TrEMBL record, chain A:
<dbReference type="InterPro" id="IPR037165">
    <property type="entry name" value="AldOxase/xan_DH_Mopterin-bd_sf"/>
</dbReference>
<dbReference type="InterPro" id="IPR016208">
    <property type="entry name" value="Ald_Oxase/xanthine_DH-like"/>
</dbReference>
<dbReference type="Pfam" id="PF02738">
    <property type="entry name" value="MoCoBD_1"/>
</dbReference>
<dbReference type="Pfam" id="PF01315">
    <property type="entry name" value="Ald_Xan_dh_C"/>
</dbReference>
<dbReference type="InterPro" id="IPR036856">
    <property type="entry name" value="Ald_Oxase/Xan_DH_a/b_sf"/>
</dbReference>
<dbReference type="InterPro" id="IPR000674">
    <property type="entry name" value="Ald_Oxase/Xan_DH_a/b"/>
</dbReference>
<dbReference type="InterPro" id="IPR008274">
    <property type="entry name" value="AldOxase/xan_DH_MoCoBD1"/>
</dbReference>
<protein>
    <submittedName>
        <fullName>Aerobic carbon-monoxide dehydrogenase large subunit</fullName>
        <ecNumber>1.2.5.3</ecNumber>
    </submittedName>
</protein>
<keyword id="KW-0500">Molybdenum</keyword>
UniProtKB/TrEMBL annotation, chain B:
<keyword id="KW-0560">Oxidoreductase</keyword>
<protein>
    <submittedName>
        <fullName>(2Fe-2S)-binding protein</fullName>
    </submittedName>
</protein>
<dbReference type="InterPro" id="IPR012675">
    <property type="entry name" value="Beta-grasp_dom_sf"/>
</dbReference>
<keyword id="KW-0001">2Fe-2S</keyword>
<keyword id="KW-0411">Iron-sulfur</keyword>
<dbReference type="Pfam" id="PF00111">
    <property type="entry name" value="Fer2"/>
</dbReference>
<dbReference type="InterPro" id="IPR036884">
    <property type="entry name" value="2Fe-2S-bd_dom_sf"/>
</dbReference>
<dbReference type="InterPro" id="IPR051452">
    <property type="entry name" value="Diverse_Oxidoreductases"/>
</dbReference>
<feature type="domain" description="2Fe-2S ferredoxin-type">
    <location>
        <begin position="12"/>
        <end position="88"/>
    </location>
</feature>
């Protein structure tokens, strides 16, 4: 019997090449390619009066320079608005190279191709651009006030105003026993993968074919965009995703201007061309996320049960909206988490600012929604003097409620927001046990006696994962018995080669070592969507399982003929098909692959056994009707709607009484991603997510000044966590409630670690300090300032009381 | 606008000793060591994450000491022994202790920062063959990873030291 692979901590097959330096990232490919640099706007808002590139001619080693004027055909149109939405009444996208106007520092203006990057950067210095300055709009308050406009034809700087509701939240709040009105803000951060963006392209003039290797989360998306913009047939363009050095959302935006400019130049110059982004460019021209201001009105009863919830928030979408309204739509719907308020109303305004675009970053709008909801839960508990866990439990959707529809809200996929499965009370029991919630007050007293300030926080989330529309899988059993698997979505560190091979090993009954998985290659899988929204395992995992089942079915059919047995009597293990209970009656999958393909020519030993003169029934066609040669299985998985993973994070922090430094003492995660394929990989995803969450909660912010200049566009100044900033030993526990929506019961796990982190840290810091925390991230100096404010307020209140008493 | 007849800038000959092999290359004086290793010699295992010495992805060993290849010029790296991630692998092609440990402990995800961690830790466990958990955290405190959350990298340091001790004992 083949060892079961699903659920096992299988070591990753990716690792051998990556630890020996044999990984192949985009910049490692096509040695000798010409290199490029982009002239980027130094101004946040300006009209371009003129661009003079004449002096670039004097720079030795330059091959070409492109401005907007040089862009042919569809390249001269605005970049695509990838995800249109009826509420996006004023969608705007930039041009591959700026036409007439720039709207953020970092917007691409000119593109230079040279012998190498050094020379290309030299050449940028020789380009003269004359600007007419326009007033920049920076930050949500300025965008909302709309005294200045980002786009002169977009009134109020509002790209979209969107409203959804169920029940009558306003009436419920009006009639509630208790009400609270709360304001929260959360700052911008960014995906910041260690490998920035990168693209290399080669045009084959003889074959009229374009090959593009790009560091993307969607090879098919880039392929479609490149073909469309360069006026090529889809069949002339191959996009291959090599090893990708992290994505976290920023590489799902497509096409980046450079992903079009590189192929354009490669075709025009008939030389391979490469773009490799540097870190400063990544800060100012790749996307950010997270910036929101939120207002919450909530009504609730004496138990803390919410009767009405009304939310209005303002979302900073940056200068353009290529990715539509996905981020604020997710915030507005995922905000509800594991709770079931009977009345809910949400309105958001998506606002333009003269800053770099905002597109999904790991968690994609959920961290903000969870932050608003969980801060509200804490506020309710504080108002009633109740335990924060009790208030949450009073609002939980119960296990018997599934499938549970959150009113008639529409989710990011345009489908009704219906949770498929979960068990939130059990998750909470596990979380409380893991963090020792019930013992914390005793610990707090102990700490207090020692002059230490500690606090505990808890935060819940529900995450729609495995968003459609579809993914495919292809499983090919070779005559050697080896199994080649392909799926179209990409991998940027999630270990897909391993996890998908585990699925195939079980479904097909073949040794894990005989399986090879290829992802993100349009030559192998031309139909695919991409890797984002915690969808890879659910979507491609399911598709590959279905494809493997098809291959298995065909193998069994051929084996039944060869062994003269009934299909139902056959089993497959270790790559051998056997008649159950008849030890001698067996045939290898590789042999079945030989038998499946009647050949004309015997070019080797295996094929000699498969010529049409040896296999098959001479009275039938060599390939039967409704059959095809080869031992393959292919299938697509397309779900009705998302599946909903869930989880709870808890943290214990200590805040220094003098310096206000925030130290993480313990961090616990309980989560439910349905069936676990590889717990080791899932836990790795959680660890990484928590570290990114720690960054977002305590350190990372995009420090734009009032002119729209990013003041911290380097790793020196934008503080991402090193090992010194993350808790040592994140405690993880799993709950598995399999999803009924897919064949393996899978739910996504990729973003779980990062979603509730700002909420959970705010909860814990508030608990330690005794005053509300309403703005994240929070630095020691900000916490110190808050302490002074609250001391001042307390002193003033005390003073007022004393005066009124005297 | 397209130009023709590109000519390159002034260059100098540079002799680099990398992983026990001597490479003679001709590069402009401003060529970064990281670029020379990657693009002139073809050892692309050394990665560039920030080009200002903060992330540590380009860390190599210069005469055995972890150094940022993006903060050195190629011309400044003559007459020293350079070790890149490719040079960590045993001569028979098998994985060195730190490489094996990363695989055992899931110490990497996307793998981009990994070469810098591997070289750093290789030097770290050479100097301190029996690190405790705190030593392990100190050892990697100068390298950024955006994927793993470091938990499994700390575990990899301890495991690497263990494998190294086993190898030396046998």
């Amino acid at each position: 019997m083949t060892t079961k692979m699903m659920g096992e901590r299988v070591p990753r097959v990716e690792d051998d090449r990556l630890v020996t330096g044999k990984g192949r990232y985009s910049d490692d490919l096509v040695p000798g390619a010409l290199e490029t640099a982009v002239l980027r706007s130094p101004h946040a808002h300006a009209r371009i009066v003129s661009i003079d590139v004449e002096a670039v001619l004097d720079v030795h080693g330059v091959h070409a320079v492109y401005t907007y004027e040089d862009l042919p055909g569809p390249m001269a149109d605005p970049l695509p608005l990838l995800i249109p939405h009826p509420a996006l009444t004023h969608g705007r996208t930039q041009y591959a190279l700026a036409k007439d106007e720039v709207n953020y520092v970092g917007e691409a203006i000119a593109f230079v191709v040279a012998d190498n990057r050094y020379i290309a950067e030299d050449a940028l210095e020789h380009i003269e651009v004359e600007y007419d300055f326009l007033p920049p709009v920076v930050g949500i308050p300025a965008a909302r006030a709309a005294q200045e406009l980002v786009h002169e034809d977009v009134p109020g700087n509002r790209a979209a105003t969107m409203h959804q509701s169920f029940g009558d939240a306003d009436a419920a709040i009006r009639d509630a026993t208790h009400t609270l009105s709360l304001d929260f803000t959360i700052e911008r951060s960014a995906s910041m993968p260690l490998e920035g963006r990168g693209t290399v392209a080669r045009w084959d003039e003889d074959l009229k074919r374009l090959s593009v290797w790009t560091s993307t989360q969607t090879s098919t998306g880039v392929r479609a965009a490149v073909a469309s913009k360069l006026g090529l047939d889809l069949g002339q363009v191959d996009v291959i995703t090599p090893d990708v050095g992290g994505g976290f959302g920023v590489k799902i935006m497509h096409p980046w201007p450079e992903e079009l400019l590189v192929p354009l130049a490669a075709r025009s110059l008939k030389r391979p061309v490469k773009f490799t982004e540097d870190r400063r460019e990544h800060f100012i021209s790749a996307a950010h996320e997270r910036g929101q201001e939120q207002h919450v009105d909530v009504g609730f009863d004496d138990d803390g049960r919410i009767t009405g919830l009304s939310v209005h928030f303002w979302h900073d979408n940056g200068a353009y909206t290529p990715y539509g309204l996905i981020v604020p739509i997710i915030t507005s719907t995922q905000l509800l988490g594991p709770y079931k308020p009977p009345n809910y109303s949400v309105t958001f305004e998506s606002l333009y600012t003269n800053t770099v675009i905002v597109t999904p970053y790991r968690g994609a709008g959920r961290p903000q929604g969870v932050y608003a909801m969980e801060r509200t839960m804490d506020a309710i508990a504080a108002h009633l003097g109740k335990d924060r866990v009790q208030v949450r439990e009073a609002n939980f959707i119960q296990p018997e409620d599934f499938p549970y529809a959150q009113g008639d809200l529409l989710f990011q996929d345009g489908r009704p927001l219906i949770y498929d499965s979960g068990n939130y009370p059990e998750l909470m029991d596990k979380a409380k046990a893991l963090i020792d919630w019930s013992d914390f007050e005793a610990y707090r007293e102990e700490a207090r006696a020692a002059g230490r300030k500690v606090g505990i926080g808890i935060a819940c989330y529900v995450e729609g994962t495995g968003v459609g529309p579809y993914e495919g899988g292809h499983v090919h059993i070779e005559t050697s018995g080896k199994v080649k698997v392909s799926t179209g979505l990409t991998s940027q560190g999630q270990g897909h080669e391993t996890a998908f091979a585990q699925i195939v090993a079980d479904e097909l009954g073949v040794p894990f070592a005989d399986i090879e998985v290829v992802t993100g290659d349009t030559r192998r899988s031309p139909y695919s969507v991409g890797t984002f929204a915690s969808r890879a395992a659910v979507m491609s995992g399911s598709a590959i399982a279905l494809a493997a089942r098809n291959a298995r079915q065909k193998a069994l059919r051929i084996a039944a003929q060869a062994l003269e047995a009934d299909v139902d009597d056959l089993e497959i293990s270790e790559g051998i098909v056997r008649v159950k209970g008849v030890p001698q009656s067996e045939i290898a999958l590789g042999t079945l692959a030989v038998l499946s393909n009647p050949l004309r020519y015997a070019f080797d030993e295996a094929s000699r056994a498969a010529t049409q003169f040896i296999v098959g029934d001479p009275l039938q066609p060599p390939v039967g009707e409704d059959d095809e040669p080869g031992l393959e299985g292919k299938d697509y998985y397309s779900p009705m709607r998302c599946t909903f993973a869930s989880g709870i994070h808890a943290v214990i922090v200590e805040t220094d009484p003098e310096t206000a430094e925030i130290t993480i003492l313990r961090y616990a995660v309980v989560h439910d991603c349905g069936t676990l394929i590889n717990p080791k990989i899932v836990e790795g995803q959680i660890h990484g997510g928590v570290a990114q969450g720690v960054g977002g909660a305590l350190y990372e912010k995009m420090a734009y000044d009032e002119h729209g200049q990013l003041q911290n566009a380097s790793f020196m100044d934008f503080l991402m966590p090193y090992v010194t900033e993350v808790p040592d030993g994140i405690e993880v526990d799993h709950l598995e409630t399999p999803s009924p929506l897919n064949p393996l019961g899978l739910k996504g796990a990729g973003e779980a670690g990062v979603i509730p982190t700002s909420a959970v840290f705010a909860s814990a810091i508030e608990d330690a300090e005794g005053f509300p925390i309403t703005a994240m991230p929070i630095s020691p100096s900000e916490l110190h300032a808050l302490r002074l404010t609250h001391e001042h307020d307390r002193a003033r209140d005390q003073d007022t009381i004393e005066r009124s008493n005297s | 606008m397209t130009m023709s007849e590109p000519t390159s800038e002034e260059t100098v000959p540079v002799r680099l000793h990398v992983n026990g092999v001597t490479h003679d290359i001709v590069v402009p004086p401003r060529r970064l060591l990281s670029d020379a290793l990657r693009h002139d010699i073809g050892l692309t295992g050394t990665h560039v994450g920030c080009e200002h010495g903060v992330c540590g992805a380009c860390t190599i060993l210069v005469d055995g000491a972890p150094s940022r290849a993006c903060l050195m010029f190629a011309v400044g790296a003559q007459d020293v022994e350079l070790t890149t991630v490719e040079g960590l692998t045993h001569e028979d092609g098998s994985l060195s202790p730190v490489q094996q440990a990363f695989k055992d402990c899931h110490g990497l995800q996307c793998g981009f920062c990994t070469p810098g961690f591997l070289t750093t830790i290789a030097a770290g466990i050479r100097d301190n063959p029996d690190p405790d958990r705190e030593d392990a955290r100190d050892m990697i405190a100068g390298n950024l990873c955006r994927c793993t959350g470091y938990q499994n990298i700390v575990a990899s340091v301890l495991r690497a030291a263990e494998i190294q001790r086993e190898e030396e004992a046998s």
